[in-house]
Design goal:
Layout (H helix, E strand, L loop, with lengths): L4 E10 L5 H12 L9 H27 L6 H21 L3 E10 L3 H10 L4 E6 L9 H9 L7 E3 L7 H17 L4 E7 L12 H15 L7 E6 L12 H10 L4 E5 L8 H17 L4 E4 L7 H22 L2
Parallel strand pairs: 1-2, 1-3, 3-4, 5-6, 5-7, 7-8
Helix pairs in contact: 1-2, 2-9, 3-10, 6-10, 8-9
């Protein structure tokens, strides 16, 4: 493909600090997205500003402080490492034709700043890889909406999902195998982010893609099939969500006398609040209170070398398809 190519690695985002004001800004942007909250603005905005943004930032900031590092937000730290690693790998493959930028749907660095960085580097075409292996309108759909306002349609290509790519599955299996070498659990929970049930329609493949990833992992993991459980986490609000919930599965396992559980979150490319605090701290405490003895969080793929290679191959394959479709 002639000319310099820009690649955006896109993720959800993170507050700039674990403080009330920073978390409130982040939640305001996140929860104002029509893709995320699909309610009438007349109904939702008063709820958001009068209640949610008054109370929730206190709880969320407290949770963020539990996982914050001296270097900052784990999601941003891992994102920068992925940006560097993918850039290095792609340019080794494609002879320094690629400029890689990290962009967040909410917070900094923004998608707008990523697009500007690529433009300043002389990139005429932009390929975006949302770091959500399974497509959802609430995540990848939002990225598509935002980038369509930043990059001309004829110069933009967005990878919608990679939920079954062999190298992504292999990287997950490698991380599970490494954890099992230290101690094989009685049960393994595959925990994906949930979405409201009414978001599921003929244009929303999220559940099918989560189930595909889970099926491919089940087929290769050395545990009995009935010891591997698909679950969904991070519910918010009173509406009905895609389930079963991760906490329900953990409670069921504890009630059955299961003492050791591993949890892996295949839908998250980087460790963040939802993995480190929601699963690694809160869910672990609940499992122990219910009679379990150990809940171990298997880290996200983050900047593992096999993950960097998987992301780079996903991008390289799409660049080749793009080149062929444009006759370049």
């Amino acid at each position: 493909m002639s000319g310099r190519i820009g690649v955006i690695l896109a993720n959800l985002g993170t507050p700039d600090a674990p403080t009330y004001s920073a978390v409130r800004r982040f939640l305001r942007d996140f929860l104002s997205d029509r893709r995320v909250i699909q309610l009438s603005r007349w109904i939702w905005l008063p709820i958001l500003y009068l209640f949610v943004l008054t109370l929730r930032p206190f709880r969320s900031a407290k949770a963020y402080r539990k996982i914050w590092t001296p270097a900052g937000s784990p999601l941003l730290i891992h994102g920068r490492a992925q940006e560097s690693g993918v850039g290095r790998e792609l340019n080794q493959r494609l002879d320094d034709q690629i400029e890689v930028a990290l962009g967040m749907a909410y917070g900094t660095p923004s998608l707008e700043s990523a697009a500007a960085q690529l433009k300043a580097a002389g990139c005429k075409r932009v390929l975006c890889l949302p770091l959500y292996p399974q497509y959802s309108g609430t995540t990848t759909g939002s990225i598509i909406d935002q980038l369509n306002g930043l990059v001309a349609a004829e110069d933009l290509n967005i990878i919608r999902s990679y939920e079954g790519h062999p190298l992504y599955i292999k990287a997950l299996l490698n991380s599970i195998d490494e954890a099992f070498k230290a101690r094989r659990p009685q049960a393994l929970v595959l925990s994906f982010h949930s979405i409201p049930l009414h978001y599921l329609n003929e244009n929303e493949p999220y559940r099918d893609q989560c189930e595909r990833t889970a099926r491919l992992l089940r087929e290769a993991i050395g545990l009995p099939a009935n010891a591997i459980h698909l679950a969904y986490q991070s519910r918010f609000g009173p509406t009905r969500w895609l389930g079963p919930s991760t906490l329900e599965i953990l409670a069921k396992l504890a009630g059955q006398g299961v003492k050791t559980v591993d949890v892996i979150c295949p839908g998250f490319s980087s460790d963040c609040l939802e993995t480190l605090e929601e699963i690694g701290i809160a869910a672990r405490e609940e499992f122990l209170e219910l009679g379990g003895e150990e809940l171990r969080l298997i880290p996200c793929l983050n900047d593992r070398e096999d993950h960097i290679q998987a992301l780079s191959v996903v991008i390289s394959e799409e660049l080749l398809r793009w080149q062929e479709s444009r006759g370049l």
